[in-house]
Amino acid sequence: MDAFSWQRADDIDAAIAAAQQPGAAFIGGGTNLLDLMKGGVAHPLKLIDITRIAALGNIETLPDGGLRIGALVRNSDAANHALIRTRYPLLTQALLAGASPQLRNMATVGGNLMQRTRCAYFYDTAFAQCNKRAPGSGCAAREGFNRMHAILGASAQCVAVNPSDMSVALAALDATVQVRGPRGARAIPIAQFHRLPAEHADQDTTLAPGELITSVDLPPPAFSDHTHYLKLRDRASYAFALVSVAVALQLDGQRVRAARIALGGVAHKPWRASRAEQHLTGHTLEAATLRSAAAAELAQAQPLSGNAFKVELAQRAIVRAAMLAAGSPVTGTSVTGEHA
C-alpha cells in the first residue's frame, strides 16, 4: 500500500473543501476502497474521513412521502429500518442479499453506490490489459475468463459488471442520488448515476471530481405489496451475482398496472429492463407473457465466449422473480417450460 495522508472532516463543507486536493478520496466504511489500496489498484494521496459527519447518517421521511437515506447509513441499518422494511421491502431484500453480516455492518449506502467491479483482471495488477485500471491498455477479459462478465451494454473497452445488489433495487425503485460539490448541490437520477463503459471504462459514475454523495432519496412508496429480489450465484451467501433481478409490480387482480424491473450481474451498471416492463404493462400476468417479456429484454444481449448461459439464466430469473413478486406458483414458469 502506498503512503497517504488522512484528514477527518466534521461537516459536509469541510469534507468538500478537503477533497479539492488532487488525489483525495472520501472514506466511510472502507470495505472496498481499502481492498483496492492494499492490492495496488487505488492510489489515493489523501483520505478524507467522513464518518463523523452526523448529517449523513440519518433516515428521514420527505415532505412528499418519500424517504431520504443518508450516505453514511450502514447497509445493515438500512435493511432493518422499519420504514424501509414496510414501505420499500425490495430494498431490504437486496441489501440482505449482499456480502455478509459483518460487511453490511461496516458498509455504507454511499460506499455501496461507489463500489467498483470485481473483475479479476481489474483487481490483479499482474494483468497489464485493463482499461478500467489503465485506460488504453485493452481489456483482457474479452478474450480471457469472462464467465462473470457483461452480456448487456458492454463495449470493446470493458465488459466488467457492477457488483452492487442495493443499486439494482434502487434502479427499480427510481431512486435519486443527492450530491454536493464545489459547485453546489445536484440530484442525479439513479439511471444516470452509473455509466456504461463506452470509451471511458475507467469512469464508473457521473460524479464530478470532489463531489460527495449526501443521500439517496426514494419516491413515495408505490410498489410495497408485490416485490421480489432474486439473486442467482455460485453459492448461497457471500458471493456476487451471476444474474440478479429486482421486480416491483402494481396489480389489478392478475393484470399488470405497472412494472419495474432491473437486472444485476449483466452490465456495467444496474440494467433497467424497460423492454420487459413495456411488454408486461397492461397484460395479464401469466407464464407466456412473462417469457415473451424476458425474451424481448435479452434479445439485445451480446454474450462472450464464457457467459452465453447468462442470456437464458436472466430470462428465467425475470420470469421467476415476477411470479414470486405476484405471489403466484413458479412451477412451469421458466423460459423453456421447465422448472426455473
TrEMBL record:
PANTHER family: OXIDOREDUCTASE, XANTHINE DEHYDROGENASE SUBUNIT C-RELATED. It comes from Paraburkholderia caffeinitolerans. SUPFAM superfamilies: CO dehydrogenase flavoprotein C-terminal domain-like, FAD-binding/transporter-associated domain-like. Residues 1-223 form the FAD-binding PCMH-type domain. One of its GO terms (molecular function) is carboxylate reductase activity. Keywords: FAD, Flavoprotein, Oxidoreductase. This is Aldehyde oxidoreductase FAD-binding subunit PaoB. The keyword Membrane does not apply. Its EC number is 1.2.99.6. The keyword Oxidoreductase applies.
